[in-house]
Design goal:
CATH architecture of the largest domain: 3-Layer(aba) Sandwich
CATH topology of the largest domain: Rossmann fold
Order of helices and strands: EHEHEHEHEHEEEEHEHHEE
Shape: globular
Number of strands: 12
Number of domains: 2
Distance between the termini: 48 Å
Number of helices: 8
Largest sheet: 5 strands, parallel
Radius of gyration: 18 Å
Structural class: alpha/beta
């Protein structure tokens, strides 16, 4: 497994290189957004650990460029900012998870392991709910034959709903199964991703199938007549 570490601070890169190497990963490094974009055009790491604040091209823009060309490589964002707006900006750019600096190396390694588990190929069976199809072998989603481009987290969220259709899933259940971590009752990460997924599923005017159950969670079920 190869991890690409992107950070303009040498001390952070060195610490992450040592930690990932000791954990058995191959490590590539980039000291800014521009060299990271060049490296990603030439190679395909298994996961990217990406700092937000960099002087040339910031991490948000690097992530946007990755997603714009269909690169679904898992991205763990590193940020020195802890406000909700900053976390939402990272998720909006296409990041799959984020860690606030200063971070605990053991937690960061656990987050990376979780991302890699979720990005590994599932079996080749198809999941179907109404006109929504999920090919777990190809990791592709369609609705009414229309292909839906999903980030890793969006894909795993949709897969969870389609594995348990018509069952109300609590916020805690979804956090644990999709993120392997419960961000707590004050986090709005889940509602942000539900919004992303709904917009993509409903982009051609289709009825809503991921519905909110107030005070309980979310459920995949047929739209009301």
């Amino acid at each position: 497994m190869q991890v690409l570490v992107v950070d303009d601070e040498p001390a952070v890169r060195n610490a992450l290189r040592r930690a990932f190497t000791l954990a058995g990963y191959d490590v590539a490094e980039a000291d800014g957004g521009a060299p990271a974009v060049s490296m990603l055009a030439r190679s395909s790491p298994d996961v990217v650990v990406l700092d937000v604040l960099m002087p040339d091209i910031d991490g948000l823009e690097v992530c946007r460029r990755m997603r714009a060309v269909g690169d679904r490589t898992p991205v763990l964002m590193l940020t020195a900012r802890e406000t909700v707006a900053d976390r939402v900006a990272g998720l909006d750019a296409g990041a799959d998870d984020y860690v606030v600096k200063p971070f605990d190396l053991d937690e960061l390694l656990a987050r990376v392991r979780a991302l890699l588990r979720r990005s590994s190929n599932g079996d080749s069976s198809l999941l179907q709910f109404g006109d929504v199809m999920l090919d777990r072998g190809a990791r592709e989603a369609t609705r009414g034959g229309r292909r839906i481009e999903l980030t890793l987290t969006e894909y795993n969220l949709l897969e969870l709903f389609m594995r348990y259709p018509r069952q109300v899933l609590s916020r805690g259940q979804i956090y644990e199964r999709v993120w392997d971590y419960d961000f707590g009752p004050l986090s709005n990460s889940l509602s942000v991703y539900i919004g992303y997924l709904r917009r993509k599923l409903e982009a051609a005017g289709e009825p809503r199938v991921i519905q909110t159950v107030r005070g309980m969670g979310y459920v995949l079920r047929e739209p009301a007549p």
